[in-house]
């Protein structure tokens, strides 16, 4: 009785797998048939019926390879490839269309049918859906490629180099003084910073000027709020009437630094989040609210062009320098903590915050996973962020007009005083 039940279950499972293989082929065939819907019957190499049958054939080939001979799948795959190639050559003679996308899609359909039967139906389904989306968005993909600039492609390739190539090669163990340096984790933090900057760059690039200063300021905080502060400050001298909007953009960009800090902490050391959430949240709120208020009162003014991004979103040299800076800060932090206690950490945070807040934030997060007290790490991060925003306030006041200096300076000072006070009290 058990043998009959097991046979029934196996038969049903096989039937379901073959049905999925057929449906996945039909899915890709619908997309291919839609593209070639204007062609007459018989002029298409493969439409919905052909793709559905090829998907089913792929599933059957997987069954035959398992039940009869291992050569069944490669032999049938080769047969489908030869038939498709002959049809493609015949079409080329008439249409002079040399694209092999349809040919590759047909071969993939065969493979998806085999995967649905022999490997995993969910995986085959996901792959088929992604393939159909890629096939259906030909013009959109080509349009994006046409808009891509050479230095942006170079930056994307470099990001892949430092993440998927270099990162796995580094040892995941402590080295150096006190074993405080972990090459894998330091480089992983570099990759994380580079990725966020890369995304922020393209958020500004894709957003366009029509989205206005609100969108630009918000996403500039992911890439370079300092660069945006300088750009908007200079612009306020040439267009004083736009000063309130420019101030709103600066405040938004500087405020976005705080969600970024929380993101780093959530990924590296979630245990530090409860101590950071209140002071960092208040500091961000005290910048966002004045920014939104300024924008709401003056948003009818002409929109400001987004910052001109002429540099690479990611330079490999910058990543290497940041990695070295992280290592130096971690070694100095360990030495200062031993020599001066918490005071040394606070001095290091203040000096690091003048130029950059990411490196010290990541370093203190990493150190708090070891023997650095949580409250010390929280206060150090708040000090670094406060000093960093204080420097941007000076840039706004020095390079912008007087009104911009006040509109940026007052919320900045209130934000840093509140954040330092809450962090100290906690």
Task: Provide the fold topology.
Elements: H1 2-35, H2 48-67, H3 72-95, H4 101-118, H5 121-136, H6 138-147, H7 150-165, H8 183-207, H9 212-223, H10 225-238, H11 243-255, H12 257-268, H13 273-298, H14 316-340, H15 342-353, H16 358-368, H17 374-399, H18 402-425
Helix pairs in contact: 1-2, 1-4, 1-5, 2-3, 2-4, 3-4, 4-5, 7-8, 8-9, 8-14, 9-11, 10-11, 10-17, 11-13, 11-18, 12-13, 12-16, 13-17, 13-18, 14-15, 14-16, 15-17, 16-17, 17-18
Task: Describe this structure in a few short sentences.
This protein has 18 helices and no strands. The protein is an all-alpha fold and 426 residues long.
Tell me about this structure.
This protein is an all-alpha fold and 426 residues long. The protein folds into two domains: 142 residues, no CATH class; 277 residues, no CATH class. The chain is built from 18 helices and no strands. Helix 9 runs parallel beside helix 11 and helix 10 packs parallel to helix 17.
Quick tags:
mainly alpha; transmembrane
Oligomer: single chain
The stretches of 5 or more residues where confidence is low (pLDDT under 50) are: 302-308
Q: Share of helix among residues? A: over 70%
Give the CA-CA distance, first to last residue: 69 Å
Radius of gyration: 29 Å
Total discrete domains: 2
Q: Number of DSSP strands? A: 0
Give the class from helix and strand content and strand pairing: mainly alpha
Note the total helix count: 18
Query: What amount of the residues lies in strands?
Result: under 5%
The averaged pLDDT comes out at 76
Profile the largest sheet: none
Shape descriptor reads elongated
Series of H and E elements: HHHHHHHHHHHHHHHHHH
